[in-house]
Design goal:
Radius of gyration: 13 Å
Low-confidence stretches: none
Shape: globular
Number of helices: 0
Helix content: under 10%
Mean pLDDT: 95
Largest sheet: 6 strands, antiparallel
Order of helices and strands: EEEEEEEEEE
Structural class: mainly beta
């Protein structure tokens, strides 16, 4: 069974940093595309970043996180990381990791940056 489990969410002050983790299991981690999405209250879920685990240099970032967020994959632990820096109130959301062409999602993890 394909499973994803996010962790690392917290309340952090503006300008602070946080690292989200997505522990993956049940599929070939070394040949997958794994992404991070987020959903803020009252808004649609939106893509944040994604990575091709077969080639960690193949990454994508949405414009509003470029230079602040960095996605990486660790095949030894089957974990995808999302370190986030210079956090803003607008980054407040539930963050989800996903794979399998958006077929499989984790349970989500709350990140709160007060205004």
């Amino acid at each position: 069974e394909v499973q994803l489990a996010e962790s690392g969410g917290a309340l952090v002050q503006p300008g602070g940093s946080l690292r989200l983790s997505c522990a993956a299991s049940g599929f070939n981690f070394d040949d997958a595309v794994i992404g991070w999405f987020r959903q803020a209250p009252g808004k649609e879920r939106e893509e944040v970043a994604c990575i091709s685990t077969s080639d960690n240099s193949r990454t994508y970032y949405t414009d509003y996180v470029k230079g602040r967020f960095t996605i990486s994959a660790d095949s030894t632990t089957g974990t995808v990381f999302l370190p986030m820096e210079s956090l803003k109130a607008e980054d407040t959301a539930v963050y989800y990791c996903t794979t399998g062409g958006l077929h499989t999602w984790g349970q989500g993890n709350q990140v709160t940056v007060p205004s």
